[in-house]
Amino acid sequence: MTKWVYTFGDGAAEGSAADRNFLGGKGANLAEMASLGLPVPPGLTIVTDACTFYYQNGRSLPDDLKAQVLDGIKAMEAVTGRGFGDTSLPLLLSVRSGARTSMPGMMDTVLNLGLNDQTVEALGHNAGDARFAWDSYRRFIQMYADVVMGIDHEVFAEILEDEKARFGHELDTDLSAVEWQHVTGLYKEVIEESLGEPFPQDPHVQLWGAIGAVFASWMNPRAVTYRHLHAIPAEWGTAVTVQAMVFGNLGSTSATGVAFTRNPSTGEKALYGEFLVNAQGEDVVAGIRTPQSITEAARIDSGSDKPSLEKVMPEAFAEFGRICDRLEAHYRDMQDLEFTIERGKLWMLQARSGKRTTKAAMKIAVDMVAEGVITQEEAVLRIDPSSLDQLLHPTIDPKVERHIIGSGLPASPGAATGAIVFTAEEAVIAAEEGRKVILVRVETSPEDIHGMHAAEGILTTRGGMTSHAAVVARGMGIPCVAGAGTMRVDLRNELLVGMGVTLGKGAVITIDGSSGQVLKGEVPMLQPELSGDFAQLMQWADKARRMTVRTNADTPVDARAARSFGAEGIGLCRTEHMFFEGDRIQVMREMILAEDEAGRRVALDKLLPMQRSDFTELFAIMHGLPVTIRLLDPPLHEFLPKTEEEIAEVASAMGMEAQLLSQRVDALHEFNPMLGHRGCRLAISYPEIAEMQARAIFEAAVAAARETGAAVVPEIMVPLVGLKAELDYVKALIDKVAKAVMTEAGLDISYLVGTMIELPRAALRAHVIAEAAEFFSFGTNDLTQTTFGISRDDASAFIPTYQRKGIIEQDPFISLDFDGVGELIRIAAERGRKTRPDMKLGICGEHGGDPASIHFCESANLDYVSCSPFRVPIARLSAAQAAIGSAAKVDH
Ligand code: PEP
Ligand code: MG
């Protein structure tokens, strides 16, 4: 028999935190807390395999599930002393989703399940509070109708608004028991009218409806989008946790809240959270009422006059503090907790590793090493390399005057400027058109997720630090100011009303997600400083990693930036980029358009000093670190004008007939230029170009060695080699120039000549090519293009379709295709090293900055990765994680 159901509660549990793959994160952690003897309402978890079954069997559940769930409910009845459907002491249930990794707000939840026209009376009687019972019933109907029956919750919100107006009430809390009972009746009528059947009264029917709906919500559009954004496979499925309800809305001694054991924004070691007195479930995160601080210190910090939990419920607060310490020590990580206090009694509803900003993640990791909780290597493993992007967000220059038009909570760090849009759809359109926008909402909901992703920043006027906007923005690394109560959104007229200003759609604002301020217009920004915890972690990462990290840099600006990010040399200098600047393009064109070699040499003589000074500067910046310079690679027509107007303009500037120029451009036209006259083929057709470049490199090496005193060892790289003979030809030419320059200068320069491996033939013949090549650098952009036979310039037209249709998961131009391109890399590395055991192997395609691809490079035993300057920190951390990971594999 398949075990579909695992129970927990009363100090014991089937399963533990280690079982998250089949119990889901929520179910696994509830089981763990129950086993630790913490106060957890009893419950059961239906495993993720049941979700898989559900989708593989036409959305039906396994036959033997029912009996197992009923057994689990019996166990819950035994612990609580209540009965499911019992009309005198009813057991009420919550039904929640729980995937392997948390997907906040993406799937559906039903609370207060088990209420019907009879049990509501009993609940009121037991609680001594009929108002509470009817309020709970109407909440249940509303949630169930929305989640299970597909009736828009707006319908119920409208009824409630109308009735409140009729009764003359402003707040929900003003309604009496009788009034809630009346509203409940209206809700049921609406349901019966729209569906032609009454709201189900049988708790078992309700239960199976809710379980089915939670499984169905795994495939709802927002969950699908979320999974896509976070690379969560659809096969994982969700578990369903059914748990006995506890109530935070039983009057002034009850409450519900969420808390982090450390500050999720800054990482500071202080309990951080929010709660609401007399509230249920989602009230805190929904941002409907502004929540109160948990600790007195946080209340004072925020300047709130609403009392803290520490003040209003000191005993529950003290117990909660003890549980926080216990859980943090147990899991050795910052925890995100949900709790409810029912008439003074604390219940834990959820514990999970807390989501945090990168800044907080780094502080927490560094602090936990200092506290002796984790090792340096564990600290390195705890930072998601891609999240380092967040650190690279600019901040507002503190010296500039700020025109503040509002303020809210500093919900997600970094500053962002953009034009105001009020809907997620507008944000998406703007992003597609390349416009920068700030998404301004009263509050966000999971439906807004695509717009949040597209925006530069998010501003909400309602909700706390744990509101949807705040949690999602932090996860995405997008600056966010939440709950800006000093501002108002007038959606009807598309206006944002701030302090002293009213701004319409399209007006530019800046939000500072680190201070919570909202500023008018665009503001000067500063680049972040990469010191403190970041520097410490990077130092640990550098200690742990085996591969070195170089950068792809063609200009002094890039090279300097890369050095400041810790690059250990240049892995690829694309020399062609140097020919596009200023009047160089003109000289380059002269060279390309020259009639013969003599003409080309005249132009090349003009280019030589320019290249030499470029290289001298790069060598000086890299101060003895390796610098790999690649000979000219692109097809020559890339330097020529394209349209008729451009041709006319260039012709007149060059004092040449437009028609003649047009003929030359036509003559250079190629059908498949990426597979055409480029790479080493240029050096073979026009050796004088390669000679000039080699001369520039060696003369620069001499100059830089004399200037800086550092040993400069240029690595000259030949692109697009497929045949050893190609490399032999170009290498002979380079060696000849080297010899000449050294004789002229009277100085010996060590240098290497190597090749890019970017053609399958080169990979397969690596053992032969290695006889000539002193190093290999995998040009995985071209190697992906040539292995797949997919043009790298045209791939974006259909790769997204392939991804949507599940034909490929990842764009192979972004994340290396391990199976195909990766196999060629392994073959080339192995064969190359067989011929030349000490040869240096690196990667310089875009994949050199992609964490998953870097893990591959570690496993293929490459010596270095090279990536764009801003990805250097990501590569350093990824390389360290890969090294620690592979060391762990060897150990165990
Ligand atoms: C490559 O092909 O991977 C490479 C680095 O060269 P380029 O992108 O310049 O063709
Ligand atoms: Mg290439």
UniProtKB/TrEMBL annotation:
Keywords: ATP-binding, Kinase, Magnesium, Metal-binding, Nucleotide-binding, Pyruvate, Transferase. Mg(2+) binds at E758, D782. The keyword tRNA-binding does not apply. Gene3D superfamilies: 1.20.80.30, ATP-grasp fold, A domain (3.30.1490.20), ATP-grasp fold, B domain (3.30.470.20), Phosphoenolpyruvate-binding domains (3.20.20.60), Phosphohistidine domain (3.50.30.10), Pyruvate Phosphate Dikinase, domain 2 (1.10.189.10). It is an enzyme of class 2 (transferase). Its cofactor is Mg(2+). Residues 60-296, 315-369 form the Pyruvate phosphate dikinase AMP/ATP-binding domain. Substrate binds at R574, R630, E758, G779, T780, N781, D782. It catalyses: pyruvate + phosphate + ATP = phosphoenolpyruvate + AMP + diphosphate + H(+). It comes from the Bacteria. Its EC number is 2.7.9.1. The keyword Zinc does not apply. Residues 531-882 form the PEP-utilising enzyme C-terminal domain. GO terms for molecular function: ATP binding; kinase activity; metal ion binding; pyruvate, phosphate dikinase activity. Residues 436-516 form the PEP-utilising enzyme mobile domain. InterPro entries: ATP_grasp_subdomain_1, PEP-util_enz_mobile_dom, PEP_util_AS, PEP_util_C, PEP_util_CS, Phosphohistidine_dom_sf, PPDK_AMP/ATP-bd, Pyruvate_phosphate_dikinase. The active site is at H468 (tele-phosphohistidine intermediate), C844 (proton donor). Belongs to the PEP-utilizing enzyme family. NCBIfam families: PRK05878.1, pyru_phos_dikin. Catalyzes the reversible phosphorylation of pyruvate and phosphate. This is Pyruvate, phosphate dikinase. It comes from Ciceribacter naphthalenivorans.
